[in-house]
Amino acid sequence: MARRKAGNAAALVAVLIVAVAASAGAIKLCGVDRTAVDACRSYCAVGSGEASPSKTCCDKVRPAQWDCLCKFKDSLPDDIDATRVMDLQNKCKCDYPPATCVN
User: Fold this and answer.
1) Burial zone of 85 (CB within 10 Å; 0-12 exposed, 13-18 middle, 19+ buried)
2) Where does the signal peptide begin and end (predicted)?
């Protein structure tokens, strides 16, 4: 039980760090900063009808470390579609090997 509480606390700290880093803009997490989040938000929004992300979005996410982002995909806000976020690696033709996030 104590081990589970420690794990939950660590996950909460990680989410808070992600939120603070993203809001700071200059700090990168997994190779992505706030400008990438802002550029890709409309494509990644739940219910988005956009067929593909913008060129600006793709330019911003190309340096992303997708395997690293897998760790945070379940911590996204409710208005962001995690499947569309992770699909950016294919839609934007990123050079990194595709991530295979395991649940």
Assistant:
1) buried
2) 1-26
**DSSP run (H or E) holding 5:** helix 2-24
d(CA 14, CA 71): 10
State how far Cα 32 lies from the chain centre.
Answer: 8
> Is-contact 62 53, C-beta < 8 A?
no
8 A C-beta contact, residue 36 and residue 64: yes
Identity of residue 40: C
SS3 state of residue 35: helix
Residues 77 and 41: beta-carbon distance below 8 Å: no
Residues 59-93 pLDDT 10s: 999 888 888 888 888 888 899 998 899 899 889 98
Which tokens hold the place of 83?
């499947």
- Give me the amino acid identity at 98: P
The terminus-to-terminus CA distance of the chain in angstroms comes to 22
